[in-house]
Write a sequence for this structure.
């Protein structure tokens, strides 16, 4: 039992002493080699990183190339896009363009380019400078031809709109009712809408000269002219104000009240400025030539002086809207100047400037009658002092026409 214990004890002791020494030396050696190896590796790695070439120039070059590519694509897309805008408009095609009011050169070029009229903004600006037109371009509706010469385009923009679209022609001698028809035809504003708006009471606060208007009528005040409403939002009010503005600019400075005072004194009658406008409107409908107008005016003033009715077919024509028959002249109406002495309640049309001036400065005559006939090749303008002379002129005119 003792041997067994010794052997067991010795074996156990020998194993515990030998193994740790061998393990310790091996571990220490391995650790030193490992430390040496790691140190060597770090130094080698450090030397490798120090000697590796930089990638920065390559990166910068790549970025620059990408930027250049993006710019090329952007420019190409812009060119293609610009081409697509007018690609559908072949050269030589007529196009209509509306230049909004207040548009600058850039906006105008954009409109022209999209319509295919112009293709080079540089050439457009160069031509503007050459013609000194930068501040003289006019808004409105134009008719151009695609591919038109840039110099011609700029000249037209300086001259102004060259189309009849959004243009209203107010002819001399038009009545308010006829004017409403023209407004509907030219601008698309219904006649009834225009006539409902055309009331003196709607505008008298802004246009004091309307204070004399009778029957709330604007007849006689809607000045004859060609009006261009291109680039504007048009309604009845805008159109009426344009014509009243023109009357204020053209007629008001003439001082119709002053003329009325002078004529009242010369003929011994009482007139005001509104009466002068009314007489001018009758002259407009009766006279044919500018030479006749002062003579016709003298006939009417002489008749007013002598308390004779004017006996103007034109005033009754304002009621009938056309030709006047013998039966029409028997109808009771404030506009029937055969049955009523004095002037009709309102002007009967829009008078021309020539008729207004004739009403302000009539010829000095003793005429009480006139016969004016324009019938094809036959023309007769005869003024008479007496009824007998007048009747003789009528008989002669009938005979002359029958002989043709």
């Amino acid at each position: 039992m003792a041997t067994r214990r010794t052997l067991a004890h010795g074996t156990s002791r020998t194993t515990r002493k030998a193994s740790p020494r061998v393990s310790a030396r091996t571990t220490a050696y391995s650790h030193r080699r490992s430390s040496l190896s790691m140190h060597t590796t770090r130094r080698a790695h450090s030397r490798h990183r120090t000697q590796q070439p930089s990638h920065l120039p390559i990166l910068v070059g790549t970025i620059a190339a990408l930027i250049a590519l993006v710019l090329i694509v952007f420019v190409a897309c812009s060119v293609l896009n610009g081409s697509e805008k007018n690609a559908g408009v072949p050269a030589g095609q007529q196009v209509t363009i509306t230049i909004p009011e207040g548009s600058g050169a850039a906006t105008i070029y954009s409109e022209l380019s999209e319509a295919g009229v112009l293709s080079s903004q540089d050439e457009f600006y160069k031509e503007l400078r050459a013609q000194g037109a930068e501040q003289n371009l006019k808004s409105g509706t134009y008719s151009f031809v695609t591919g038109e010469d840039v110099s011609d385009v700029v000249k037209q923009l300086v001259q102004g709109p060259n189309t009849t679209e959004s243009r209203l022609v107010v002819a001399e001698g038009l009545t308010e009712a006829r004017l409403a028809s023209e407004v509907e035809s030219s601008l698309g504003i219904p006649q009834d809408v225009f006539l409902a708006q055309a009331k003196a009471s709607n505008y008298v606060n802004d246009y004091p000269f309307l204070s004399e208007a009778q029957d709330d009528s604007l007849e006689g005040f809607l000045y004859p002219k060609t009006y261009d409403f291109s680039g504007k939002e048009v309604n009845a009010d805008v159109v009426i104000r344009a014509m009243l503005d023109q009357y204020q600019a053209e007629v008001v400075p003439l001082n119709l009240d002053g003329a009325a005072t002078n004529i009242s004194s010369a003929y011994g009658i009482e007139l005001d400025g509104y009466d002068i406008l009314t007489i001018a409107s009758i002259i407009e409908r009766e006279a044919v030539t500018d030479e006749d107008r002062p003579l016709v005016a003298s006939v009417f003033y002489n008749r007013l002086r002598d308390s004779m009715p004017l006996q103007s077919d034109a005033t009754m024509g304002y009621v009938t809207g056309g030709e006047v028959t013998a039966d029409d002249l028997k109808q009771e109406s404030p506009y029937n100047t055969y049955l009523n002495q004095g002037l009709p309640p309102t002007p009967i049309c829009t008078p021309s400037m020539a008729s207004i001036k004739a009403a302000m400065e009539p010829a000095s005559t003793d005429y009480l009658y006139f016969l004016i006939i324009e019938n094809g090749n036959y023309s007769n303008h005869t003024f008479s002092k007496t009824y007998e002379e007048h009747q003789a002129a009528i008989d002669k005119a009938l005979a002359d026409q029958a002989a043709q």
Observations:
- The chain has four domains: 85-159, 167-250, 256-367, 369-404.
- The radius of gyration is 49 Å.
- The CA atoms of residues 2 and 8 lie 10 Å apart.
- The longest strand covers residues 369-375.
